[in-house]
Structures are given as C-alpha cells and as structure tokens.
Amino acid sequence: MVLRALQGALGFLSRLPVGHDGGSWEAFRATPASMPLAGYVVGALLALPMALPGPTPTIAFAFVVTVYLVTGINHVDGVIDLGDALAVHGGPDERRAVLKDTDVGAGGALAVAVEIAGLLMAGLALAALSSRAALLVVVAEVGAKGGMAQLVCFGSAPHDGLGAALTGRSGPRSALLVVASAVPAAIITWPRIEIAGAMFLAAAVVALGSLRLARTALGGVNGDVLGATNEITRIVALHVGVVAWTHW
C-alpha cells in the first residue's frame, strides 16, 4: 500500500517515469503521508547540482533548471493562477472565476517572477556554503510536500476537481502520519537538527497561512492552492535553512 502510494505521489508531484495507473492514484489519495515520503526522493535529485564543481552562479542556475526538470511546471501554474486571483477585487466566487482563466495577468506574472527570483537566490546561497549544506534541499522538499499534505488533511475543496479528489479522502487524523514521515529528515542535519526544526516550522507556518488564505479568499483548498503552497514553502524553507546554517 505504501509503495503504491509513493508511486502515485511521485507520479503526481514529479516528472519521474514511475508510471501512472488507477491503483497508485487511489493509494496516493488515501495516503497524504506519501507526499513527504516523495519529498525525500525528489529532494535528493534536486540536491545533485550542489555537488557539482563550478562557479556559484552556474551551480545556482543548474539548481533552478533541475527543480523544473524534475518537478515540472504544474505547480508553477498554481502560483500564476493564485497570483492572478489574489489581484482581483471581489469575493471568492470572482477569484475562483479568475483561476479558470488561461490568460496570465499582472498578479500571476509578478508571482512567478518572485518565485523564480527566490529560488535562484536560495540556490546562490546554498552553492556558496559547504557541500553538506546541499542536504538542506532535501529537508526543504520534505517540508514543502508535508505542507501540501497538511492542506489535504485539514482543508476542504470549494468545488469538484483536484482539490476535492485529494481533500475528500483524508482528515485531521492523517496529519499524524504526515508529521511522522517527515521527522526522519531532521537526522539529515545531525547534529544540527535545530536547522531542520526551523525549516519545518517555517513550512508549517506557510501551510497554515495558505489554508487560512484559501478559506477566506477562495472558499477552500483547490489544486492551484496546493501547487502554490508547494512552491512557496520550498523557497521559504530553503532561505530559513540558509540563515540558520549561516548564523546558528
């Protein structure tokens, strides 16, 4: 069951050739903890550029490219749509209508520009640290996927769609397994596990903020909110990790 759920999570959260079928999708839907478990695999791949020799800017650029090669751009689309929706003056109905619009507005353009800049700056900072700091990429990815999973556990969708497909199968009790599956990532930064703790705390704060924003601005958690939360949490966790690694 867990392996099937992990296969489904990797198929949904990355571009890895793990195959897609109804069984793995259903196992994934029923197991939010498979999201942070997938974060270990995805994070390890994203950290590879940090082990390469070369100038810091080149390594940082390779890191950004690797992120989108491995994870795809579906979540980036969520950032764009959410940025456009939040730029609308109106209620949840008006904002949800914007989410369905295929045109990119000023809010979406600004949101994706900030995302890419934040990811690149994090890559520059990581590349300037010791090679072991690349482990922060794995922690951040587990935290990002854990944040998505918490939205699935505590959120509800405003309409049928991806959000409903995921939130409809899980509840708050599933959140315990999500936390348990993410905890081992703290060992990665041993003996400085406080760094991982700070990153996970940042991820939890972003997830909580996303949940509150989704409920008040959109009427609930949908696929765009999940994707945007993943992208935002990754960047925030990376920057928190760099600060903690540098100053603690």
From TrEMBL:
Which terms are listed as keywords in the entry?
Cell membrane, Cobalamin biosynthesis, Magnesium, Membrane, Transferase, Transmembrane, Transmembrane helix
Q: Which regions span the lipid bilayer? A: 33-52, 59-76, 109-129, 174-190, 196-214
What topology does it adopt in the membrane? Multi-pass membrane protein
What class does this enzyme belong to in the EC scheme?
transferase
Give the EC number.
2.7.8.26
The GO annotation for biological process reads: cobalamin biosynthetic process
Q: Which Gene Ontology CC terms are recorded?
A: plasma membrane
Q: What does this protein do?
A: Joins adenosylcobinamide-GDP and alpha-ribazole to generate adenosylcobalamin (Ado-cobalamin). Also synthesizes adenosylcobalamin 5'-phosphate from adenosylcobinamide-GDP and alpha-ribazole 5'-phosphate.
HAMAP family for the chain? CobS
Q: Which family does it belong to?
A: Belongs to the CobS family.
Q: What is this protein called?
A: Adenosylcobinamide-GDP ribazoletransferase
Native source species: Halococcus thailandensis JCM 13552
